[in-house]
Structure formats: C-alpha cells, structure tokens
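quick one, 240 residues, struct below
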Amino acid sequence: MDSTATASLASLWDEVSGTQPDPDLWVVIATLGAALAVVIPHGLWRISRNAITIAHEGGHGLVALLTGRTLTGIRLHSDTSGLTVSRGKPHGIGMILTAAAGYTAPPLLGLGGAALLGSGRITLLLWLATALLLAMLVMIRNAYGALTMLVTGGLFVLVSWLAGTQVQAAFAYAVVWFLLIGGVRPAFELQAKRARGGAGDSDADQLSRLTHVPAGLWFFLFHAVSLCSLIGGGRWLLEM
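---
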C-alpha cells in the first residue's frame, strides 16, 4: 500500500513538475488579444479588474507573512478595491515592503508566470496558482471577497483537473497576459485619481509617510516594475 501511494505521488509530481509542449503561435497571439480585450475597454475592465485586485491584495498578504507580520484578514469589494490587514510594527522594512507589494504584485506574478510558460511548465503554473488562491481564500473576511475567490479558484481547479492540454495552455497564457497587461493600468488610474484630489491614503501615500520619499517616486517604481515586467514577460511568451 505504501509503495503504491509513493509511486502515485511520484507520478503526480512528475506530471506537475514536468514540461508540456508550447501551444501554437496563433494561440499565444489570440490569448494576447483576449487579454487586451478585457483590459482596455472600460466596461469590461470594471469586471476583470477584480482579478487584479486579488493579485494586489494577495501580494500585500504574502509579503506581510514573509516579513514576519501577522496577517489578520483580506477584504475584496465590489468596486474592485480591497483591504489587507496585518499586525506588526507600524514602521520599518516589513511594513514598507508590505505596502509596496500591492501594485507590484500583479505584474511580477505575470513575469513569474511567463518564466514558467517559457520553460514549458504549464501544469506547474496552474497548480501553483490554484494553491495560492486556496490559501488566500482562508484569509478572506467578507462575503463578496469569498464569492470572488470561490469563482476564480473554482475556474482554476476545473481547468487544471478537467480540461485538455490545449485548453490548459490557452488558459495559462491568457492568465499571464492578463496579469502583465492588467498590471500596468491600476497605477496610472491611481495617479489620475490623486491628481483629481482623491485617494489621499493610497499605497504610494503610505509609502511616502513611511520612507519620507515623495509619492511620485513610488509611482515611478510602480510604473517601472509593471512596464519592465510586461516587456520581459511578453518576450518570454512570444519566444517559440
């Protein structure tokens, strides 16, 4: 029995960590077009931005844990805003990194996903994403957030377990393109909102108070990370 279980686990690990064939170039281009189609139009962006918020708040939460803070809860709201609450020192490197992780998380996740797809590890990408979503679900503290996470996580589970290899590849490329492209827009939107007198307690403002570095320089960091991730990740995805 033990040997059978060990063999099954070994086989499962080989399947997850192994490589899969790259999709055809037209699939890569089509998924790029699909990502652009849900990011550029304002109406669709108001819906698809919820997925970027998941990555944004997940970034805050993950870095909070990695820097020794206590993560107490995450909320996702229907207006695509979110809130991540952690306990710890209200200053210092842990708090700075936690605050900086939000706007940088979606493009960096996209870049990491592009690296995995570039090396042919489609299954590993899908399983890692599913595991992160399930772990984040445990920390959700409101009904809308729980519903959003269940729908998103359920979609990943269905694709990972039931879909064929071509569908999995198309889904994985679409997700990574979406993170890379969708990760660029929020910082520009926030900057525009601040210019109109809104969002006075944004991540950039919190970072400015924590570091005494002007918020404008933090926006420069957000833009640099997202645009460099898009360029670098896009190159990996398009290399066949």
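The chain has a mean pLDDT of 93.
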